[in-house]
Amino acid sequence: MTIQADKETIVVENFIKGQRVESISQSAKENPANPNEIVGYFPVTTKEQAAEAIAAAAEAFTVWKQSAIDERITRMRKAIEKIRAAENDIVQLLSREHGKPLYDAHGEMYVALMWMEYACDQAKSVLQEEVKEHETGKTIISHDPIGVVAAISPWNYPIALSTIKIAPALLAGNTIVLKPSPFAPLAATKVAEIIAGEFPAGVINVVHGESDVGVELTSNPLVAKIAFTGGTETAKHIMKAASETIKHMTLELGGNDAAIFLEGFDVNDERAMRRIVVSNFLTAGQICMIAKRVYVHRSIYDAFVDKYIEAANRWIRIGDPFDPNTTVGPVNNLKQKQYVEGLVEDARKRGAKVIPLGQILDQKQIEEGYYLQPTLVLDCDYRDPIVVEEQFGPTVPILPFDDEEQVIALHNESIYGLTSSVWGREEDAIRVARRLEAGTTMINTAAVQGLDVRFPFGGVKQSGVGREYGEEGILTYTETHVINVPKALDLPYIPE
């Protein structure tokens, strides 16, 4: 296959100490909807360049950590304004390199900007020094910056999951080295450069590359904290690399998120059925917090499946991400396409019923790009790979359950615990939700439809360590420093 670059090809470089730094070679990023088209090029960063970026961040930290919180907020707000001014161009670039439809790319920008604005609004109060006067003296509690942050972002929400790290890290007084995913490197780099333009040189640096660069970011002794969003297996290697210098870590990892539909759920609620369909297939199913397995009480199972198929066929329209009629685009890369195809084929061989969903808008384009028609998988076993593994693509199994104890056990036996959702009468749903092992449980909605950046987000078990968003998502980039000023210096139980 001959790949042709088109006239709108974008080229990004490493960004170190306020300057674009060229690399010896470049990698091409294709358009998932049309792999013959090169969207842009990004650098093959060397390990030495990564070390240079870390050193630049460490040097900048000595000054930036002393900056006033008002200055940090003012600079971040100016960056937000510039991102808003460039939003349409960024969204189109994101859609071309990632494959997500334009409305979905705008949605990602909405979440990213909403979080950045919230972080600016809350930073001063969250990071404010506390002084506590008490009978034994005075205690000062401050939230100090940690140092250099190595931020590694994924390809599924490259802008939102980069800014979720950049904004709080910088507002807390840290410096940062960002490594976007090679599967979606362009738009994230553009956004990072816009932010960097409002901050002193070296406060924000951007590198690219493969595992050797990742090893440098996670093992270099100048790095004080790692903020990583990605797969659980990769996180295990990161924890090992970071252990030599005991780095701070925030890890938001994989999830096999379950949606549970209780006996009292109304299958005739069309809006609710649309919400679960969107929660399964938004971004072609490539969201960490999307509902990836659906459990339905046996008493409503048959009716639920019928109504689900109706809702899916109404909402799902597979096509060109730039077509306003498209709701589901291609998956991001060939490797992911093949992985999801393998899970579906394995389920079929095990005796499952695979039902294609939605309307294909352009069959020729579907055949040329990294497209997968969304599928519903029925009659599979609770232990089949398509149920217990994270598909991260446009397919979902629906399984019946008989009682609450059974479905709670099925939910909790997973090694993951990122998000979950329970659907039905509110009091019943909350009762079940309290027994689920998950970082977040949503009631009568799921995925980004239930996301609120004002509150912490993260996983339990092998879905992660720490929390992002909310006040906790700001404080995670700080060290708590306690200064005690006692009145009585002689303790009564120590003899003279």
TrEMBL record:
Keywords, in A-Z order: Coiled coil, Oxidoreductase
PROSITE patterns: ALDEHYDE_DEHYDR_GLU
Gene3D superfamilies: Aldehyde Dehydrogenase, Chain A, domain 1 (3.40.605.10), Aldehyde Dehydrogenase, Chain A, domain 2 (3.40.309.10)
Stretches assigned to the Aldehyde dehydrogenase domain: 27-482
Pfam families, alphabetized: Aldedh
Keyword Oxidoreductase applies: yes
Entry coiled-coil feature ranges: 69-96
Alphabetized InterPro entries for the sequence: Ald_DH/histidinol_DH, Ald_DH_C, Ald_DH_CS_GLU, Ald_DH_N, Aldehyde_DH_dom
PANTHER family the UniProt entry points to: ALDEHYDE DEHYDROGENASE-RELATED
Identification of the protein by name: Aldehyde dehydrogenase family protein
Source organism of this protein record: Paenibacillus shunpengii
